[in-house]
Every structure is written in C-alpha cells, then in structure tokens.
Design brief:
The chain is of the alpha+beta class. The protein is about 25% helix and about 20% strand. The chain contains 3 helices and 8 strands. It has a 3-stranded antiparallel beta sheet with strand order 2-1-3, with helices on one face. Strand 4 (about 115-120) and strand 5 (about 125-130) form a beta hairpin. Helix 2 (about 170-190) packs antiparallel against helix 3 (about 195-210).
Length: about 220
C-alpha cells in the first residue's frame, strides 16, 4: 500500500501539461522495524533507510477570472410631458338688478306715490323712510366707576333717542322715491349673499311704486 501511495505521489508530481513545473524532492523512509513512510521535502530520520527521488511538479494555474456581468440596461425614461398653461377662469359678470317690467297704466290713471319722509338721527345722520314715526333707539352711554374712570367698564346704560322725521313735500316726492330706489339698488348690489334675496324683493317693490305712480310718467 505505501508503495502505491509513493507511486501516485510521484505520478502526480511528474505530470505536467502546458503549465510551468517546479522541482520537488520525495523521500521514502524505512525504519528499523520495517515501517515505511513517505515524506515530501524532508529527509528521513537517522537510522532509517532512505530513498530519494526528485520530480518536477506543475505550478498551480489560477482559475480564470470571469468579468462581472454587465448591468441590465434600463428602459429609456419617457420624455417629460409638455406643460400646458391653464387659463384662469373668467369671473362671472356682476349681477345686474332685474327691474320689474314697465307699467302699462295710462297716465290719466296714475296716482301720486305714497308719502315718504326725510329723517334725521340724534347724531345728524339723514335717511329716507316710509315710516314717519320710527321707534326710539337705545344709544349706549359711557359708564364710569366712583373714581370717574371711563376705562373701568362697570355696568351698561343707554339713552333712548327718537329720530325726527318730516314728510317730503309732494312736489319733491318723486325725486325722493327715485333716490330711495337707487339706495336700495346699491344695498342689493353690495350685500352679503344671505341678504340679497330680501333686498332684491325690496328693490322690486320700490321700483314698482316708482313705475306705477305719477313718478313713472
């Protein structure tokens, strides 16, 4: 068996191809008891029978290095979508008051307009009203503490004030009613959404008075 191993080792060491070879020394040792050992590059110990053989062994050929696989090509990115400018929405035209249809009353059948009054408030503000006796209004008074400090804000008080109204003369009544019509129209045009319906109805009523009375001739 040792002889077979020795032969195999020698055969492997001697085999060469196209690879480059190097020198190897093989020692076959037999001791005094007849035990056989084979050593590579190391001489037999003293007292042993030694057989030496020099063989050429091929150099190890490094394994070929494969280049890493090329990364898979990514699909081309789609071209950016063109930016289309969006036009701002056109605001709706301002709401125009819709006047009642023109009256078909004959001039001979028209009546003077109802009475209308010019009223003055306690602080000299003026307005037109169909009510010649408006209810009193409570005007807040400034309150103070015992020291007379108005910033203390202790308590609340008000004083009743009554607007003073005088009837507009008949000769100027139509002008007053038309002015009242313009005032209601302006209030309707600039009113909040919650108040528009009420003011629209008031404008239609005042316009009807102007159109169907002697003011509409």
């Amino acid at each position: 068996m040792p002889r077979l191993a020795f032969c195999l080792l020698i055969a492997i060491a001697a085999a060469s191809g196209a690879a480059r070879a190097q020198t190897t020394v093989i020692y076959r040792c037999t001791d005094a008891q007849g035990a056989l050992t084979i050593q590579n590059g190391t001489a037999c110990p003293k007292g042993s029978k030694q057989e030496k053989r020099v063989v050429d062994t091929p150099m190890a050929v490094p394994a070929a290095t494969m280049p890493p696989p090329a990364p898979a090509a990514l699909p081309p990115s789609p071209p950016p979508k063109p930016i289309v400018p969006v036009a701002a929405p056109t605001p709706p035209p301002p709401e125009r008051p819709q006047s009642p249809p023109a009256s078909t009353i004959a001039d001979a059948d028209r009546l003077p307009p109802p009475p209308i009054f010019q009223c003055n408030t306690w602080d000299n503000d003026r307005y037109l009203s169909e009510d010649g006796a408006p209810k009193p209004r409570c005007v807040a008074l400034q309150t103070t503490d015992l020291s007379g400090d108005p910033a203390s804000g202790i308590g609340q008080a008000c004083e009743e004030k009554t607007d003073q109204c005088q009837r507009v003369p008949d000769g100027a009544a139509c002008d007053a009613w038309k002015k009242r019509q313009r005032e209601v129209e302006a209030s309707w045009r600039f009113a909040k959404a919650a108040d528009k319906q009420t003011l629209q109805e008031e404008f239609a009523r005042v316009t009807r008075i102007v159109n169907e009375s002697t003011c509409g001739k």
